[in-house]
Each structure stands twice: as C-alpha cells, then as structure tokens.
Amino acid sequence: MKQQQEASPRRVAVLLTDMKGSSAFYRNYGNLAGRVMIQKHNALLFPLIQDASGVIVNTLGDSIISYFDDPHAALNAAIGIQRKLAAYNEESKEHERLFIRTVMHYGDCIVEEKDIFGYTIEAAAALLRLCDAYEIL
After folding, report:
1. CA 18, CA 121: separation in Å to the nearest integer?
2. CB neighbour list of residue 114: distance below 8 Å, 6 or more residues apart
3. Angle of CA points 7, 48, 106, to nearest 5°
4. Which residues of 44-75 are buried (b: 16+ CB within 10 A; e: fewer)?
5. Angle made by CA atoms 82, 83, 88, in degrees to the nearest 5
6. What are phi and psi of 103, to 5 degrees?
7. Which of 14, 17, 16, 11 is nearest to 105 (CA)?
8. Cα 125 from Cα 123, distance rounded (Å)
9. What is the pLDDT of residues 56-70, one digit of tens each?
10. Which of 44, 63, 100, 106 is the 20 to 30 A CA-CA neighbour of 126?
11. 3-class DSSP assignment, residue 118
C-alpha cells in the first residue's frame, strides 16, 4: 500500500464555477451538442482563470474547480468570467447562451496536483446551491 503523503494547509482563494441549465440543454439537444457546449465553456473560461494566475485543479461536467494565491486575483477572474459571458451571450443564439454561477471562498486547503481538500472548498461548494446565474458569491 502506498504511504500517505504528508501535506500542510495552504491559504488560497478557491473559485468554483457551475453552469446553470446544462442538464436541460443535454436533454433537449443531446450529448454531442452538450459536449460541444462544455468545450466552448472551457475555451472561454480557462484563459480567464489562467491569465489571473489561477490554477485549474479539476473540472466536473460543467464545473471548474480552481484556486488562486491572491484573493484579489480570484475576484478579478470571477468578474472577468461574468463580463466575458455577458458579452458572449449578447452575440449568441438563445439556446447557445451560457449562464454561470461563480463562488469564491478564502482559507486553508490541502492543495494537490489534481485535487483540493478542506473546509474552504467544502464551504465554497455549499455556496453554489445559493448562487444563481450571473452572480458571484
């Protein structure tokens, strides 16, 4: 059995995004169109997170899990995401629009290469249930 690696908490700003309405989109337009929509979502959002010095830890369907060493950078990325999608939605057909919920929380986490653990990420995930499209909590 592999020995568990020791890890120490690290203070980071966690940024989570979640797309509203993706289940209905998959149901109405099919898996292939849904996958294309997720690829478009990632192509729009990944650069905004990375340009703000964020680290994308993982994706889960239509959600992005990322973190930032600087909470101001996380907030700037969240604002940038909402602005980018508002502009994108103005130019898109109604069924192609992307509606994103964005949640941030700052605190100690255990950060690993492909995952993040701790109260901070759990609290951010809980906030997603309270967040609506175009909002940043």
Report:
1. 14
2. 57, 58
3. 40
4. bbeebbeebebbebebeebbbbbbbeebebbb
5. 95
6. -130, 140
7. 14
8. 5
9. 999 988 899 999 999
10. 44
11. coil
- Please report the beta strands in the chain, taking only residues with DSSP state E, as ranges in sequence order: 10-20, 55-60, 63-68, 99-112, 115-117
The first and second tokens of residue 14, run together, are 């966690």
pLDDT band at 97 (very low <50, low <70, confident <90, very high): very high
CA distance 62 to 19: 6
pLDDT tier at 2, thresholds 50, 70, 90: very low
DSSP 136: B
Q: What is the pTM of this model?
A: 0.88
Contact 18, 134 (CB under 8 A): no
Residue 120: both structure tokens together: 């901070």
Residue 39: its H or E element:
helix 31-51
In single-letter form, the type of residue at position 56 comes to I
Starting at the edge strand found earlier in the chain, the sheet holding 55-60 runs 55-60, 63-68, 10-20, 99-112, 115-117
